[in-house]
Design a protein that fits this description.
Length: about 170
Amino acid sequence: MRKPKAERPEEQQRFESFLRSRQLKLTGERLDLVAEVFGQSHHFDADQLHMALKQKGKAISRATVYRTLDLLVQCGLVRKSSFGDHHAHYEAAQKDEHHDHLICLNCDAIIEYFRADLEALQDQICQEHDFQPMHHSHQIFGLCRACQGKTTDGPTLAHRMSQLNT
């Protein structure tokens, strides 16, 4: 008599199905990474994720972290964003959850927010232009409350601002 499979989190099941459809293996390293991603409560980059796994005694290469994050993005389990710096930020994608971002150019704080009236306005604009939206990302760059009172390095801020349009 076969034992029933142990219950697996929905994210792991989705990722396993995704990998199987591409004839890829669900390795222990990938499972550790999925668990770590869904244990994060904030945005992270690949190096931060790699370091968190190393601190927990998980032997995962940096290349495996990057490759697996790309697979998780393709699968729809992770969102990838660029916040004006030169590397990607990630966050676990929660079902039916959307938010936008305020990004501090001085301390790199990322503040998430949701405004139903802003979402409604975006929907109205799309309707007016007979446009079918599929995804949007609203990011506002500036200085957070803590950094507004501090002396900031003008040339550094100017450089960061100039990099936003590239």
